[in-house]
Here is the input.
Amino acid sequence: GGGQSSVAKTMLDTMDVTVVEITPDHVELTMPIGPKVLQEWGFLHGGATLALLESAASYGAAARTDASIERPFGINVNVSHRKSGVHGMVRAIADIDREEPSRNGGRKQFWRVAAYDDAGDVLSEGTILTLVVPLSRLEDLGREVPKRVTAGGKD
Here is the structure.
């Protein structure tokens, strides 16, 4: 280990996240609970769970987006942690609840999200809001529009 790879690494690669399913209405990702995602007391780090859940909602948002004319962004996370994970796998689910127009020509997507342990118990659950923004709006704001990063064959 320690050598530079020619393949770009994303946060999800670092966390060993696997894409199980992506549709415009439903996303499922899994992540092993191990040293990379534990906090100092040996429990699953809440931030890792939030990153997994926001990623699930973001994949769903991307599946509902025309990348040639718009980009999705996570803009609000409202998630409660219910149980601590220690080992096994985390299964993250994101399901679209509704989509509404936004005032700047894009649209808001409301995603119901939950993370489950191997026993099927809820670790964390809540709502993530994504905003799909037209590229023309980003250009009007003088924002750089990077290309999508794909790495590690995970998606």
